[in-house]
Design goal:
HK97 family phage portal protein; 16 strands; 12% strand; three-stranded antiparallel sheet; Phage/GTA_portal; alpha+beta
Length: 683
């Protein structure tokens, strides 16, 4: 006969599969803690607030993990990461960036990573709207000591039970909980964290700290025995104790000379600080804790000897050995458990993070040079250049000959590998080292141009954002009114068609793009004039810019409408009042970050600015060199750092690298601010 508890837990979720072997005994219930939580896990989490070394390690690792940027991608048929397409609008991405009304994405990630680093477990509870339960709306981090898995002998896991602070038990289905674990070799249902392996050493460190504290409060005295001849009566003992406490108890009475009567004698039994060796003990405890976390001293800011090379190596080591494994664990949970909750809407999508490991410029250059030299040998041996490029991992490039006045590179000299690489990438062939003053002049011209470009862009963005405040207010009112009407009609489906009036926004953005394009064209003409070259500024493509404005406005309006609909779903209950729901939606929209707005409007403006420059440059006299510059990006991605300061042979190759504004391979997409700077003066 099946037990009532097993029957109840078996109903939590219908299992999709059977476990091949029993993981749970027949007699065991779910965890044996029916009326309490995991006290040991709570003790492990408390160590962060009581042991400085634990706090330093967990804070450093969880903070570094939380700051890494994430993206949602559509998988490519080739299976290659570089062929994936970014997805910028999706409910799963919105939830990951803003899990719930009270947590930012970074705070959420730092919170559950703390649990993982302390206990070896992290729990996300998925919240849904009861009227449309199939759609996840929020993620909440939950203390792992309050979550009990409900084992199943036949199906491995039946569900979970959350035990509240006052003992309340909340059953949760399998699709309502996502768990990340560091595997426990003895318990497949629970995780194991580093703290669990060093609890005894942590206790020793904590107790030694307490002893030190007591030493300074009252010198850790008395540390001996008072011997008396014969026996004392109760009255004599009480009188002696009262006098002793009056004269020697407390900080102010420390180190007073004691007077003993009636033949009493003091026998010293205390240990000194040197005897206890607490300094050595605490230092050893720190080493043991760091060993459990596999974290070196420099990761906590303890640097005995450092220079720039070792500092850079330390950053790379920390990111590669500590941050990346934590990111991979979260990535697995997102793609295996979170995205499938969205059904067909998430098919062929995957989350991925931006690589936090700093690029090793020297190693990258050595690899490229090695590939170029290998390609050189294969081409000389008679193999087809395109096949050679594919074989060694270099891009295919069409050879069009050297620029006017330049000598073709000879494959036989020692620079041939670098020259071949430059030709394959569309850059200028390696040339003799320029004189310092020539390179200084190029640097000055690039820096001067980028400063002017940055100023023009920032002024245009500030003006557009100021004008957009009025548009945002109008959009918010439209959406709140539509939500109120949907609640009055008791029609949830109306939320799917929320849309503000975008006519004024299209006009505003289109005018801003046209004005910036015209200003950017004139700015490039001024750059040429400063170098003694006459260039006519190109007229803006008003129809094309208007189409861009229509797309960007539609994306922004759809994003705001989605935020309004999602919040309305969250607060819309069976007895919801229209004004209450509308008020909640209005407050939510008012509190949204302007990050998306800045990114989208900034991307559109940069596109317009780049169009003005490139259209003018297309009909201008050919400069001596086209230089890619990413200096206006405060936080360049690895690809932009790679292309920064590269020199192209012609307009076509430069335009191919920057086809619609931003650098084509930039991981930041709309946030990229790279451009092309032409240099006409002969260097």
């Amino acid at each position: 006969m099946r037990s009532p508890l097993r029957t109840l837990t078996g109903r939590i979720i219908a299992p999709a599969n059977k476990a091949p072997v029993p993981y749970e005994g027949r007699a065991r219930t779910w965890g044996g803690r029916l009326f309490g939580s995991r006290i040991d896990a709570e003790a492990q989490m408390r160590t962060m607030g009581s042991i400085g070394t634990v706090f330093g390690i967990v804070h450093r690792t969880s903070n570094a993990f939380s700051q890494v940027e994430w993206g949602l991608w559509e998988k490519a048929e080739s299976g290659l990461d570089e062929d994936r397409k970014p997805v910028t609008r999706h409910l799963a991405l919105d939830i990951w960036n803003r899990p719930n009304p009270f947590y930012t994405g970074q705070l959420f990630r730092e919170s559950f990573q703390q649990h993982l680093d302390l206990v070896g477990e992290a729990v996300w509870v998925v919240a849904r709207n009861p009227r449309m339960r199939q759609i996840p709306l929020e993620l909440w981090p939950v203390r792992p000591d309050r979550i009990e898995p409900v084992p199943s002998r036949e199906n491995f896991l039946a569900g979970y039970v959350y035990i509240g602070p006052d003992g309340e038990q909340v059953p949760l289905k399998l699709d309502e909980v996502i768990r990340l674990m560091m595997p426990n070799p003895l318990d497949p249902y629970r995780g194991m964290g580093p703290i669990q392996s060093v609890l005894s050493d942590i206790d020793a460190s904590k107790y030694s700290a307490q002893w030190n504290r007591n030493f300074f409060i009252n010198s850790a005295l008395p540390g001996g025995i008072i011997e008396v001849p014969g026996e004392w009566t109760d009255d004599e003992f009480d009188q002696f104790r009262d006098r002793w406490e009056e004269q020697h108890r407390g900080v102010a009475a420390a180190h007073r000379v004691a007077l003993l009567e009636n033949g009493a004698k003091w026998v010293d039994r205390k240990f000194t600080m040197q005897d206890m060796q607490f300094t050595e003990m605490r230092g050893l405890s720190r080493e043991i804790i760091r060993e459990a976390y596999t974290i070196p001293k420099f990761a906590l800011g303890i640097i005995d000897d450092v220079n720039r090379a070792t500092a850079e190596a330390s950053k790379a080591w920390f990111a590669e050995m500590l941050t990346v494994p934590r990111l991979e664990r979260a990535k697995g949970a997102l793609n295996s458990f979170f995205l499938p909750l969205f059904g067909d809407a998430a098919r062929n999508l995957e989350f991925d993070y931006c690589d936090p490991v700093p690029a090793d410029a020297e190693a990258r250059d050595r690899e490229r040079l090695s590939k170029a030299e290998a390609a050189q040998r294969l081409v000389i041996a008679g193999w087809a250049p395109d096949d050679v490029a594919d074989a060694v991992g270099l891009p295919r490039m069409t050879y069009v000959g050297p620029p006017a006045g330049a000598k073709p590179p000879a494959l036989s000299n020692q620079k041939s590998g670098e020259q071949l690489l430059a030709g394959l990438r569309g850059e200028l062939p390696a040339a003799p080292v320029a004189q310092d003053e020539d390179e200084d002049e190029v640097e000055r011209l690039v820096e001067q141009a980028m400063e002017a470009i940055r100023t023009l862009f920032e002024n245009a963005l500030d003006a557009l954002l100021a004008a957009w405040d009025t548009i945002n207010v109008a959009w918010r009112r439209d959406l709140v009114d539509q939500v109120r009407q949907a609640v009055e009609d008791d029609d949830v489906a109306q939320l799917a068609s929320l849309a503000p009036d975008t006519d004024q926004a299209k006009v505003e953005l289109s005018d801003a793009l046209i004005a910036l394009t015209r200003a950017a064209a004139q700015q490039l003409a001024d750059e040429a004039a400063a170098q003694g070259v006459t260039v006519e500024p190109a007229d803006p493509d008003e129809s094309g810019l208007g189409a861009t404005a229509v797309v960007v406005v539609a994306l922004l309006a759809a994003g705001l409408a989605a935020a309004a609909a999602r919040e309305a779903l969250r607060v819309w209950g069976p007895d919801a009042q229209p004004d209450e729901v509308a008020h909640q939606v209005d407050e939510h929209l008012r509190g949204l970050s302007d990050r998306t707005l800045r990114d989208e409007l900034g991307g559109a403006l940069h596109h317009a600015q780049q169009e003005g420059r490139m259209a003018t440059l297309e009909d201008a006299p050919d400069p001596e060199v086209w230089i890619a510059s990413e200096r206006n990006d405060a936080n360049s991605c690895a690809n932009c750092r790679e292309v920064d300061d590269k020199r192209f042979t012609d307009y076509a190759s430069a335009r191919a690298a920057y086809p619609v504004g931003a650098y084509r391979d930039c991981l930041g997409r709309t946030r990229c601010r790279g451009t092309i700077v032409p240099i006409w003066e002969e260097q």
